[in-house]
What does this fold into?
Amino acid sequence: MKGFSARIAIKSIDERVRPGMTANLRIPVQSASGVLAVPLGAIFTEQGERYVFVRNGEGFERRTVSLGISDFRFAEITSGLSSGEVIALEQPPDVPQTAGKKRGPGGGPRVGSTNAPAATPATRGSTPRHPSI
It folds into this structure.
């Protein structure tokens, strides 16, 4: 969280507001509703390519996706995935590891698992937001 000093002009004076008071504000800079969104941990990055692992029968296939806006938990998927498809929340054990593979849009922790991955269906209706100022 960052702090900024600001001067404001108040149109309607409220007697409870006094000079020198402080306030904590959250200002959303962008939002979306009714979009396809997935957890950030389900998005992997390798050499600038973003992808997810989509359930394909008994296993998972790697699929390139394009991202829209995101917040600290979810990212909007603008192409490469359809609503209702099931995605892995971690590296599937049947998919070989590749050097440089990282989780999440910002890189995040390296991925590795010897267990079957948790999975979740991609759904519409989540509302990712860019972090507030």
User: Anything to note?
Assistant: The first strand starts at residue 35 and ends at 39.
